[in-house]
Design a protein that fits this description.
It contains 3 helices and 4 strands. By secondary structure, it is mainly alpha-helical. Helix 2 packs antiparallel against helix 3. The chain binds zinc ion (ZN). Zinc ion (ZN) binds next to loops.
């Protein structure tokens, strides 16, 4: 018994009729069953790349789908980093997992000496979050604000 979902576009035949004869079903690629989500996402992203290369714009639904995929992928990577922090191993596999997931997330700063391969004693350093107000230009001197210095957030 098959566990993969059958393609409803071609009724699992893998072919669709056209004026010029039967052709491979565009939804399943002629397989008769739907590929994994991984393959479907890759196909859709490839369609986006081709559309952009032709100069066609992407629609709002395409962008919404892409943002949903991005958020899901980032959430999964965050979970992977959190799980890798809980692993206590001597092979530094957890550290390598954190480095790989961090490549996509940019959650931590990584210096050249800390990259895998140079990882003796290395650790990912949490990115410092700073918030600075723009400096006042000399042409327009900043006015003093009550309760704080000009140009600095409290
Ligand atoms: Zn099909």
């Amino acid at each position: 018994m098959s566990t993969v979902p059958a393609c409803s576009s071609c009724f699992a035949s893998g072919e669709v009729p056209t004026d010029y004869g039967a052709v491979d079903c565009p939804d399943c690629g002629g397989a008769g069953f739907l590929p994994s989500r991984h393959v479907l996402v890759d196909w859709r992203v490839r369609d986006f790349e081709q559309a952009v290369s032709r100069g066609d714009g992407l629609g709002p639904s395409d962008l919404k789908w892409m943002l949903t995929e991005l958020r899901q992928a980032r959430a999964a990577l965050m979970e992977i980093i959190a799980l890798a922090h809980d692993i206590d191993d001597g092979d530094a596999i957890a550290q390598r997992i954190r480095f790989v997931a961090n490549k996509a997330l940019g959650l931590y700063e990584v210096s050249a000496a800390e990259r895998p391969g140079h990882e003796a004693g290395a650790a990912l350093v949490p990115r410092a979050v700073t918030c600075q107000a723009p400096r006042a230009t000399s042409a327009a001197p900043a006015q003093s604000e009550p309760g704080g210095e000009p140009g600095h957030l409290p």
